[in-house]
Structures are given as structure tokens and as C-alpha cells.
Design brief:
Strand 9, helix 11 and strand 10 form a beta-alpha-beta unit. The protein has 11 helices and 10 strands. It folds into 2 domains: 138 residues, Rossmann fold; 139 residues, HUPs (Rossmann fold). It has a 10-stranded mixed sheet with strand order 3-2-1-4-5-10-9-6-7-8, sandwiched between helices. By secondary structure, it is an alpha/beta fold. The two termini are 21 Å apart. It is elongated.
């Protein structure tokens, strides 16, 4: 995992929409509470020269003018959000011209950020999940923080796990973040009954007699409880929820009463790994509370 606990250095993708203004406010809260270094980046996407028929020399002049004007107008917006200049905008705000996903990834790498924060999914606009967010996910080494709402204190963290080593490392991150926030963790395991799993995977037969499913459920619940009993909670208050159902739906159904979802993006091999990839995708798209998707180093994002 890139790190444990709150983000150490965070890049916020800002485009002036209310949702990304919420990102700046959430980042400010992290700055105040944990000393997180926050960089704000605004990207202006200009069509390539061959698509607009412009002369390269004039296009370069136009880009410089656009960058300058965007910098000044956006700086004014950010100063309204951060009147005390806690972010240190002179050193931690930039405008780039180019592909939004590529610029965000490149900028985050240049400042050695561990987390990228984006606004919520929209069908249109800069941070459309089908374009910019997917590009960020594919190209970045950072954790991804999706902020779909105004910031609020983090008092309860929902941590979905599938009992894989990767998900337990994500649970450790949730625990450490909870310790810093004095929050409580809900460890959530979604049990996907065998008939549901096989039905979701072409080529597998339906499951056998109901007693076999009951046995699998009982064993899964026992393994879940044993795993949590053996986990080092380091004094963090926690509870366990074992819920039957499709994992993404279970996570989204249990978000109420929580302030953050902290989850990994890789699961067990085979079908479970594909399911967890789809879970990350679905939760990032549809959650109503912030999601911290934890990225394993030297592993590619797995999104269905």
C-alpha cells in the first residue's frame, strides 16, 4: 500500500464546478487536521492543432493566453475558498494545457503525491468517469479519493473486505486513518452465494442442494469473524457486518451512517478478483459519500 493513515500529499483536480469546489474544501480540512500538503491543478483541454486547422505558432500564443487567463480567474476562485491562504497557492496551484487525465497523472508524479482527489462521476464534463477518471486510474500510482459531497467530519469509516491479503492491507489503512480521526470502523464482508456467483460467470453450472450453500455461508462467516478476531485493531473501535448479496450493492446499501468508504481494488484470483474490480468501479461511480480507493504499488488497477 502506498501509505497508512491520512494523505501526506494530495493533488486536487479542480475545474470550477461546485463538486470540485467541495474537493478543495475537503482538502483544506485534511490540511488543517493532518498537515496534508495540498496541490491544486486545473487542466484546460484544447483540441489538437490538426482538429481545429490552426497555425502552430498562433496556437502556441493562444495556449499561453488561455493558461494565463485561466490561472488568474481560478486563483481568484480559490482565494474565495481559502481566504487565509492555508494552501499556499503561490507554490501549490498550477494550470496545465492538455489531456486532463494525462496532466493530472503527470503532475501528481512530479510532486510525489500519494493521493489524487477528484469530483464525482458525471456523464459530461471534465471528470466524466468514462474518460478522465478512468485515465487517472489507469495511469496513476496514487490512491484515489472521490469526493461527491461537501466535506464533513470523518467519524465512521466503512471498510469492505473480501478476506484477501490486499483487502486486509486496505483494512489496515482504514484502521490507521480511523485512529487519526478518532473514528470507528465498520468491516463489511459481502457474501456472494455460490448460485449467484456461478450465474454471473458464463460456463459455470448452477449450485447444488441448498444445504451446500448453507455450509459455504457458515464457513465464510466463520472465516470472516476469525480474520477480524486476529486482526490488530490497535485500539480502534470497530464492528463487523456480514451481509449476503452482490458486493457493490451491499457496499452502497451500507454507506448510510458512514462518512468515508475506504477500500482496496484487488481481490482473490479468478471470479472474486473480477467481482472486486467491478465493485471498485461501481462504488466509485455511485457512492454518495467520499470513497478512498487504495492503490497497491506494483499492481495495476483492476476495474471491470
Amino acid at each position: 500500500m502506498t501509505h497508512h493513515g491520512p494523505p501526506k500529499r494530495l493533488v486536487v483536480g479542480y475545474d470550477g464546478r461546485p463538486q470540485t469546489r467541495d474537493c478543495v474544501l475537503a482538502a483544506l480540512d485534511l490540511r488543517r487536521r493532518f498537515g496534508t500538503i495540498v496541490d491544486v491543478l486545473r487542466v484546460v483541454d484544447i483540441p489538437p492543432i490538426d482538429q481545429v486547422g490552426g497555425r502552430p505558432d498562433l496556437m502556441l500564443l493562444a495556449e499561453a493566453e488561455i493558461e494565463s487567463r485561466t490561472y488568474e480567474s481560478t486563483r481568484s476562485e480559490l482565494e474565495e475558498l481559502d481566504p487565509e491562504n492555508e494552501l499556499g497557492l503561490a507554490d501549490h496551484f498550477a494550470v496545465r494545457i492538455g489531456n486532463p487525465a494525462g496532466m493530472l497523472v503527470e503532475f501528481a508524479h512530479s510532486v510525489d503525491a500519494d493521493t489524487l482527489m477528484l469530483g464525482p462521476h458525471e456523464k459530461h464534463g471534465l471528470f466524466d468517469f468514462g474518460s478522465t477518471t478512468r485515465g487517472v486510474i489507469a495511469g496513476s500510482d496514487c490512491d484515489l479519493w472521490m469526493q461527491p459531497c461537501p466535506p464533513r467530519p470523518i467519524e465512521r469509516i466503512l471498510a469492505p473486505i473480501d478476506l484477501s491479503e490486499e483487502s486486509l492491507r486496505a483494512l489496515a489503512c482504514a484502521r490507521d486513518l480511523a485512529a487519526e480521526c478518532k473514528a470507528r470502523v465498520t468491516a463489511l464482508h459481502a457474501f456472494l452465494a455460490p448460485d449467484m456467483a456461478y450465474a454471473a460467470s458464463p460456463g459455470y453450472p448452477m449450485s447444488g442442494p441448498i444445504y451446500a450453500v448453507d455450509d459455504v455461508r457458515k464457513l465464510a462467516k466463520e472465516e470472516f469473524q476469525r480474520t477480524l478476531d486476529e486482526f490488530d485493531w490497535n485500539g480502534v473501535e470497530h464492528e463487523a457486518r456480514f451481509v449476503e448479496g452482490a458486493p457493490a450493492a451491499v457496499v452502497l446499501d451500507n454507506q448510510e451512517g458512514h462518512d468515508l468508504i475506504a477500500m482496496g481494488t484487488h481481490g482473490r484470483t479468478g471470479l472474486a478478483a473480477a467481482v472486486l474490480g467491478n465493485v471498485a468501479h461501481s462504488v466509485l461511480r455511485a457512492a454518495k459519500i467520499p470513497v478512498l480507493a487504495l492503490r497497491l504499488k506494483k499492481r495495476a488497477w483492476l476495474l471491470g
